[in-house]
């Protein structure tokens, strides 16, 4: 007969995670070199997407306020030491990124060794969706002047855009950007996008262009 699994930690008031008895843990974060702060740093080095304070607290069995203090310490420490990376709060969570100052170096390394991940057509289509969302496929095509079916499929498969319901009048599927899009651009919200929207046609103009293209 096998032993029953240990119960999951319970969330208490004010975002404090109840710590499990030490005999239920495989480790105690305070025993590691550097303690809790270094343990959190180690986790941040391997995450594929921004991680919340609560997720870190649950994983390490420590209170959320301790996580917040450690994150602040890491963020300030990286800035003071002028490291090549920085800790940023993006898309509702925390993740380590290369510092913007080193963008030329990082960009050259990537472009020298790899093909750009998105084509120019994909980037242009993504920009239209980002600034005019939720927007239909025909409206995006009206701005770009070409068929965008293949590009839309690519952006969907990469998790950069998603379906956002359908248009009430035409029943056409509407598209918008995803949290992954914000993460990849290092943005907290769509409000942080550069002011490009004024240079794009309004929705009613897009409809007129789309209709003229069908005639």
TrEMBL record:
Swiss-Prot/TrEMBL keywords: Cell cycle, Cell division, Chromosome partition, Cytoplasm
GO terms classed as biological process: cell division; chromosome separation
Pfam family, one: SMC_ScpB
Keyword flag Transmembrane helix: no
InterPro entries, per the entry: ScpB_csome_segregation (IPR005234), WH-like_DNA-bd_sf (IPR036388), WH_DNA-bd_sf (IPR036390)
Claim: Cell division is one of the keywords in the record: yes
PANTHER family: SEGREGATION AND CONDENSATION PROTEIN B
UniProt-listed NCBIfam families: SMC-Scp complex subunit ScpB (TIGR00281)
Name this protein carries in UniProt: Transcriptional regulator
């Amino acid at each position: 007969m096998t032993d029953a699994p240990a119960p999951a930690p319970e969330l208490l008031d004010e975002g404090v995670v109840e710590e499990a008895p030490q005999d239920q843990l495989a480790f105690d974060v305070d025993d590691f070199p550097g303690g809790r702060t270094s343990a959190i740093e180690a986790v941040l080095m391997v995450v594929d997407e921004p991680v919340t304070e609560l997720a870190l607290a649950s994983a390490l069995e420590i209170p959320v306020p301790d996580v917040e203090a450690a994150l602040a310490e890491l963020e300030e420490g990286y800035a003071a030491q002028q490291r090549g990376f920085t800790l940023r709060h993006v898309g509702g969570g925390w993740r380590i990124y290369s510092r913007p100052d080193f963008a030329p170096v990082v960009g050259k390394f990537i472009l020298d060794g790899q093909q750009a991940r998105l084509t120019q057509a994909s980037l242009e289509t993504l920009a239209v969706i980002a600034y005019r969302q939720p927007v239909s496929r025909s409206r995006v095509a009206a701005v770009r002047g070409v068929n965008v079916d293949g590009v839309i499929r690519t952006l969907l498969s990469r998790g950069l855009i998603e379906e956002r319901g359908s248009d009430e009048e035409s029943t056409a599927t509407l598209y918008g950007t995803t949290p992954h899009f914000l993460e990849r651009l290092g943005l907290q919200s769509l409000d942080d996008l550069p002011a490009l929207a004024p240079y794009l046609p309004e929705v009613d103009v897009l409809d007129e262009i789309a209709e003229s293209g069908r005639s």
